[in-house]
Amino acid sequence: MITIGVLAAIASAAGYFGLKSMIPVNGSSPAFGFPANTYIKATHERSGYEYVSQSSGSVKGMRTSGGGSLVNPTYTFSSGELESIHFINEDYDTHSQHNFNIDEFKVHTRDLKYFESQTITFVADTPGTYQYYCTIHPEMKGNIVIE
């Protein structure tokens, strides 16, 4: 009887936390679906601190004509879509901490140390243009467009 009670408690806890993990940061109920994934890294180059797109070459608009990644790019998302931002700090030069924020969608990562990462999932539910930024390095900013 004790074993069954323990197993039921474990199953209940797993179900509760599993369901809770499916709630986007700007939502109140679970989102059942697959998010679109966007990969962004923070780095430091000769021009200073910057966000760099980590999207593959097959993603339209995320590469320069020379094949390099865009710096502080504008991302375009479809209204109502579930989006996941995968953010990694790859600031090898200075090992500075970085974060990623979009206030309107309650997207806020913690301050990440060198080579730490965090994924934030949100619903892009309000059309418009919004700024993403780093609170530590004000020059790190760009736009997100919800169409």
Task: Please give a structural write-up.
The protein is mostly beta strands and 147 residues long. It has one helix at 2-20; strands at residues 36-45, 48-53, 75-77, 81-89, 101-102, 107-108, 117-124, 128-133, 141-146. Strands 2-1-4-7 form a four-stranded mixed β-sheet, with no helix packed on it. A hairpin with a 4-residue loop joins strand 5 and strand 6 (107-108). Residues 57-61 have low confidence and may be disordered.
Please give a handful of descriptors for the protein shown:
mainly beta; three-stranded mixed beta sheet; 35% strand; globular
Summarize the entry for a quick read:
With 147 residues, the protein is mostly beta strands.
Cα separation of the termini: 56 Å
Q: Report the total helices.
A: 1
Total E-strand runs? 9
Q: Which structural category fits the helices and strands?
A: mainly beta
